Amino acid sequence: MILSSNNPDIPDDIDLSDIRREIDEIDEELLALFVRRMKAAEKVAAVKKRDGTPISNPKREQEILERVEREGGEFGSGARTMMATLIDISCTYQQMLLYGDDGKLRKKFMTAGSIIAGSKIACQGTVGAYSHLAAKQFFGDDVQPVFLAKFQDVFEAVTEGYADFGVLPIENTTAGAVNDVYDLLTRHGFYIVGETDVDVNHCLLAPKGARMEDIKEVYAHPQALSQCARYIQIHGFNTNEYSNNAVAARNVARWNDPTKAAIASSVAGKQFDLDILEEGIQDIDGNQTRFIIISKNMVIRDGADKISLTFSLPHRTGSLYRVLSRFSANGMNISKIESRPLKGQNFQYRFYLDFNGNVHDEKVCALICSLSTEMSHFKFLGNY
């Protein structure tokens, strides 16, 4: 049957309240049919469990969606979206019924470890770096992290067992995502086990006795240079990228050249006995950097309320919408989504997604387990 939208003339004796009553009646019928469909999905799950049949049947789903779009006429696209959402909700529900506690990922959730006092911590940079402040903020003031030159070094230290946990920046409120860390997370298959937000108060640091008018060169991490771009432009400084702000401050102190300055924290200035020529030079007040705590073992702490996932999708219309709609259908709030290009695959992307929830909530667990069986390159990054 092809639906038609020939708009009939509206009789004068019909008002909006009459039409709304009609819509309410239709909605009641739709709700009853939805419940009936989900009850049928229960029976499907039971048969699939008995016969060992996979939950997803892409060929049948595609046939259904094509038929619905065809028979929906000019409403076909909307009808297809509605039916795709129904199928996705049904698959998630069947996942919960079918696998129970037998799913591999579910078992990992149940056996996740914990953060032990006295663990070895690795950070990128040196004493006084913002990563150092993040480590102290998360693990306590007495923490004595191992400092390494590059982000990659932190991952390798955890891989080799020289450190139990690593502390790394993942996002800044001004400069955005730290893409290198996202890429390393995927490459190493590590878990995020915690996070902490550090207030960023950038200072212009110079050798003792240096004056503002003397400064020609500034040294800092690319993120810090980006966060202070307006200030740098106003003063006409030449910029030089460094692996870490505190390392830049340390070298400026060693060079003792009044024409060279670093952008770093006041803690770094005190650590390396530099003058603070100006504080708060970042372009935007309230600047913060989010740091994550990484581990090669899954850790889920009490009260964990944020979940991070990564996955890739086929380059088809509506593929991302279908995934996101499942979170909405289950009452889950997505707080962030990032995309990164897949190397060697033109215009194909890996998505990073954060949403609110805990894996010990049955609906949350069922959705994650369902997505893990359906998607390519799916990875549960952590619940923290």
Keyword list:
384 residues; five-stranded mixed β-sheet; six-stranded mixed β-sheet
Note down, in words, how this protein is organized.
The protein is of the alpha/beta class and 384 residues long. The chain is built from 13 helices and 15 strands. Strands 1, 2, 3, 4, 5 and 11 form a 6-stranded mixed beta sheet that branches. Helix 1 crosses helix 3 and helix 6 runs parallel beside helix 7. The protein is elongated, with a radius of gyration of 27 Å. The relative contact order is 0.13. The mean pLDDT is 90.
Topology:
Layout: H1 16-51, H2 58-71, H3 76-99, H4 104-110, E1 121-124, H5 130-139, E2 146-148, H6 151-160, E3 165-172, E4 176-177, H7 179-188, E5 191-199, E6 203-206, E7 217-220, H8 222-227, H9 229-235, E8 238-241, H10 245-255, E9 260-264, H11 266-271, E10 275-279, E11 288-295, E12 306-312, H12 319-329, E13 334-341, E14 349-356, H13 362-374, E15 376-383
Helix pairs in contact: 1-3, 2-3, 3-12, 3-13, 6-7
